[in-house]
Design a protein that fits this description.
The complex is a heterodimer of chains A (140) and B (171). Chain A has helices at 24-34, 39-42, 44-50, 60-75; strands at 13-19, 80-87, 97-109, 112-122, 128-137. In chain A, strand 4 (112-122) and strand 5 form a beta hairpin. Chain A has a 5-stranded antiparallel sheet, with helices on one face. Chain A has one domain (5-137): Thiol Ester Dehydrase, Chain A (Roll). The longest helix of chain A is centred in the middle third of the chain and has 16 residues, at 60-75. Chain A contains 4 helices and 5 strands, in the order βααααββββ. With 171 residues, chain B is mostly beta strands. Chain B has a single domain (3-57, 96-164), classed as Hotdog Thioesterase (Thiol Ester Dehydrase, Chain A, Roll), CATH 3.10.129.10. Classes of the chains: A alpha+beta (140), B mainly beta (171). Chains A and B meet through helix 1, helix 2, helix 3, helix 4 and strand 2 of A and helix 1, helix 3 and strand 2 of B.
């Protein structure tokens, strides 16, 4: 299952749809599982009337978690050594998310082959919602 | 800063994987997981976020018997205090403007059901930037280390939060 350095080259990509018509219920589900009950994400009344947003929006960490599904599906279980994300745009109920990883480097560290990836997640309008990086162990 | 214990169990891993939309059976089926490279159930990459469930001082969880800043009868359960000149930003308003800007993880070893992690948190850097969409942006970095029972690092997490002067506009 694991990726092989010998079969990867700079510029290779892997893409997956990681959310389809994101539901408010999934946002609530994430609040419960993560323990982050910030009402901005689950409480429409609070989000509109107190915080001044058009409505609730997803936790950035829900988008990062969903993007991580694409990463682990590609690099394999337990293979990530680093994963980072900047939240560049909010994700709203109804959004579709496409996550893509692009190989930017193949390096060896302490005898271990690693692949370096750029990670970008976009919504249905092609707008970037996550911009990140990841590093994973690969086989020779 | 704070330190607390974070016991990891299989059901929490399963619920977390469901919530991020991950149907990989390594997170829910121990028998399947035993045949994978890690040799058993492990946690998904962003799972340590759930550690806040065990943080006694985590502010974004309602507390039994205490007012909550989300809506109930009113749009917020925290009554605005008598306004002092510079107090307008200190109640629910300021948390409403606190957003998560960036998150970084370094993975040292997999997290498995049965682990009891010790979570310790410290402040990192802080800086200010003039934002395009949200007025002045105040960034603060928080570094959280998750260690196993042997004291070995399991995950190092760096979170960057941003407090904006107003709600971020949707240009």
């Amino acid at each position: 299952m694991a990726l092989k350095a010998s079969e990867l080259k700079i510029g290779d990509t892997h893409q997956e749809q990681v959310a389809q018509n994101l539901s408010r219920t999934q946002i609530v589900q994430y609040a419960g599982a993560s323990g982050d009950y910030m009402p901005l994400h689950t409480d429409e009344v609070y989000a509109k009337e107190i915080a001044g947003y058009p409505g609730v929006f997803a936790h950035g960490m829900l988008s990062m978690g969903a993007t991580g599904v694409m990463l682990t599906n590609w690099v394999g279980d337990g293979r990530l050594t680093k994963y980072s994300a900047r939240f560049t745009r909010q994700v709203w109920p109804g959004d579709d998310l496409i996550a893509q990883a692009t190989v930017t480097g193949l390096v060896e560290e302490d005898g271990q082959q690693l692949v370096e990836l750029d990670v970008v997640t976009t919504n249905q309008d092609g707008q970037e919602v996550i911009n990140g990086k990841a590093t994973a162990r690969v086989d020779p | 800063m704070a330190e607390f214990k974070f016991p990891v169990d299989a059901s929490q891993i399963m619920l977390f994987a469901r919530a991020v939309g991950d149907k990989n059976p390594i997170y829910s089926d121990a028998e399947y997981a035993s045949g994978t490279e890690p040799g058993g159930t492990i946690a998904p990459p962003t799972f340590v976020q759930a550690g806040c469930q065990y943080d006694p001082s985590f502010p974004l969880r309602p507390r039994i018997g205490e007012p909550w800043f989300g809506s109930g009868k009113e749009a917020t359960g925290i009554k605005p205090k008598e306004k002092k000149d510079d107090d307008s930003d200190k109640s629910s308003g300021s948390s409403a403007r606190m957003l998560h800007a960036e998150q970084q993880y370094v993975y040292h070893k997999p997290i498995r059901p049965g682990d009891e992690l010790t979570v310790s948190t410290r402040r990192g850097n802080a800086w200010t930037k003039e934002g395009r969409r949200g007025g002045a942006l105040n960034f603060t970095e928080t570094i959280t280390e998750y260690r196993d029972a042997n004291g070995d690092l399991v995950v190092t997490a760096t979170s960057v939060g941003v407090t904006t002067g107003k709600a971020v506009s949707q240009d």
